[in-house]
């Protein structure tokens, strides 16, 4: 993930934040010197007016406070915008990955990388970089000012530095590996919650509440144990520097106090030196904490790059032709990874405007054929052609304007009826929505609702029956006005009579369209030009007889 590309649009803000950070750091670093001057030159020697000097010091500190506040505001605004850009890009990348990616990865793990890991990366490249710059500048200023006060004592202050750096470095690998494990466990838990909350009905009817509660509790305990382990390691990584800083500060205070008593150092100089030394050690501790956060960020980078390095599915560049003669499957085969072929050497031609029915037993490959034509899957071998052109050469945007798939497992999302129908469509009129709802037989249902199109249908259409969901999905599909419609068990939740009446209406609407109906039952297929059984047998092509459909007058196609 090239974070620099996302920071580039904000480079001027980034530079401004850095410059303001320099001003704020310098003003903060100057405060102990102002204190020394106030004590030694004003209060003790009485060389300058106390009210005047105090007023100047207060004014400088107020300026520093204002600059720091503005810096935080600019940083926060830039940081939030950067996060939007990074998450949007990652989300867009995920949407364009091969469909097989989503069959191999759990939803909770994907969400964890979008939310938690990207946030950690954003902090690493903005907040941590800014802090690294500020702390490094403070470190250098502290050394410079300490040398100005007493160069011999400054060298003495460096006595514990090698031990600090060595101790921090030793914890590097431990923090990284344990942070990776914590991220993995957190992602697993998010997947568990997503799966359970999306299956509440199944859980209740299966009396799984107690079992799942125990599983959830067990996972939380594992996460807690790993959290404690990570915090314990971080505490040691931070505690060792703190202990060394404390020992050094006590020794230095004892030594400087002795010099003040002997009259070889002023009180102001002692206080300034102790303050700068504490600040110096504080910057070292700050660098140690940044180093720890670097390991956490490094773990997140690894996790995000795991997905970002997966190449997006290739897309064609051509536009689908405004007219075509036929769709051809030529020796098309498909299989999931490490599985037997679901579709093997499949051949068929579908004429423009033809109504084709595909039937067969479960698992024979009916839905796979639909998803191959809809380009959700890509053939392992062979190809699908529109006339003489491979459909993979068309851009997906253009192809999905030509082909519309309505599957039995497509979701109905949370929102109103209007919002669901308008999803992805601009300038859709209310009359158009009401027309398609009437075609699919939902007009009476809609008129019975007080809020009509503004009715909230709930997450996954929970307020609708299974048949109503399918009718609503069909209504949304009709608004696409595609040339080719694929209905994959799109009416399986309707009874035979309801399906019959729906097909009678759709027959008129689909008069000039190419329609492929995939089903496991033969009822209500008498409006098809051909019906093909994929369950085996020798390849035969024959027109069906007029009237009702029976198993005797169905063409048998061997894949």
UniProtKB/TrEMBL annotation:
The chain crosses the membrane at residues 12-30, 50-76, 129-149, 155-175, 230-255. This is ATP-binding cassette domain-containing protein. GO terms for cellular component: plasma membrane. It comes from Bacillus aerolatus. The keyword Nucleotide-binding applies. One of its GO terms (molecular function) is ATP hydrolysis activity. PROSITE patterns: ABC_TM1F, ABC_TRANSPORTER_1, ABC_TRANSPORTER_2. InterPro entries: AAA+_ATPase, ABC1_TM_dom, ABC1_TM_sf, ABC_transporter-like_ATP-bd, ABC_transporter-like_CS, P-loop_NTPase, Type_1_exporter.
């Amino acid at each position: 993930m090239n974070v620099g590309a996302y920071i580039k649009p904000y480079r001027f803000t980034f530079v401004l934040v850095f410059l303001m950070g320099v001003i704020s750091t310098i003003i903060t670093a100057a405060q102990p010197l102002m204190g020394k001057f106030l004590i030694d030159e004003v209060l003790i020697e009485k060389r300058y007016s106390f009210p005047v000097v105090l007023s100047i010091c207060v004014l400088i500190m107020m300026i520093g406070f204002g600059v720091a506040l503005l810096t935080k505001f600019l940083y926060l605004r830039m940081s939030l915008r950067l996060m939007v850009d990074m998450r949007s890009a990652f989300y867009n990348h995920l949407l364009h990955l091969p469909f097989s990616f989503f069959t191999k990865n759990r939803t909770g793990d994907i969400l964890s990388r979008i939310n938690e890991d990207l946030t950690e990366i954003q902090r690493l490249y903005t907040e941590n970089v800014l802090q690294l710059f500020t702390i490094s500048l403070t470190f250098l200023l502290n050394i410079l000012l300490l040398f100005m006060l007493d160069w011999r004592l400054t060298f003495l202050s460096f006595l514990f530095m090698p031990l600090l750096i060595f101790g921090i470095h030793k914890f590097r690998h431990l923090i990284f590996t344990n942070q990776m494990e914590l991220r993995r466990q957190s992602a697993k838990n998010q997947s568990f919650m997503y799966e359970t909350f999306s299956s509440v009905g199944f859980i209740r009817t299966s009396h799984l509440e107690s079992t799942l509660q125990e599983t959830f509790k067990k996972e939380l305990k594992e996460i807690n144990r790993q959290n404690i382990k990570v915090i314990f390691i971080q505490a040691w990584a931070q505690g060792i520097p703190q202990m060394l800083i404390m020992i050094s500060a006590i020794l230095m205070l004892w030594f400087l106090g002795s010099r003040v008593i002997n009259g070889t150092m002023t009180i102001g100089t002692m206080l300034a030196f102790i303050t700068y030394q504490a600040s110096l050690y504080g910057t070292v501790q700050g660098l140690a904490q940044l180093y720890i956060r670097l390991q956490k960020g490094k773990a997140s980078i690894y996790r995000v790059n795991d997905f970002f390095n997966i190449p997006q599915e290739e897309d064609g560049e051509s536009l689908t032709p405004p007219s075509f003669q036929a769709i051809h499957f030529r020796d098309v085969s498909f299989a999931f990874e490490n599985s037997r072929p679901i579709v093997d050497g499949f051949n068929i031609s579908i004429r423009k405007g033809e109504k084709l029915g595909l039937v067969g037993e479960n698992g024979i490959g009916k839905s796979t054929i639909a998803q191959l034509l809809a380009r959700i899957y890509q053939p392992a071998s062979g190809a699908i052609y529109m006339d003489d052109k491979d459909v993979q050469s068309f851009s997906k945007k253009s192809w999905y304007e030509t082909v519309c798939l309505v599957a039995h497992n497509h979701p109905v999302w949370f929102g109103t009826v209007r919002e669901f129908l308008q999803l992805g469509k601009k300038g859709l009129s209310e009359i158009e929505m009401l027309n398609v709802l009437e075609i699919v037989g939902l007009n009476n249902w809609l008129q019975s609702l007080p809020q009509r199109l503004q009715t909230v249908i709930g997450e996954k259409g929970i307020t609708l029956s299974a048949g109503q969901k399918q009718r609503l999905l069909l209504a949304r599909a009709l608004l696409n006005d595609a040339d080719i419609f694929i209905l994959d068990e799109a009416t399986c939740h309707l009874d035979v009579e309801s399906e019959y009446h729906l097909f009678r209406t759709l027959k008129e609407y689909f008069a000039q369209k190419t329609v492929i109906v995939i089903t496991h039952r033969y009822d209500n297929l008498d409006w098809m030009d051909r019906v093909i059984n994929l369950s085996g047998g020798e390849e035969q092509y024959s027109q069906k007889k007029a009237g009702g459909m029976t198993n005797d007058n169905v063409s048998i196609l061997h894949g």
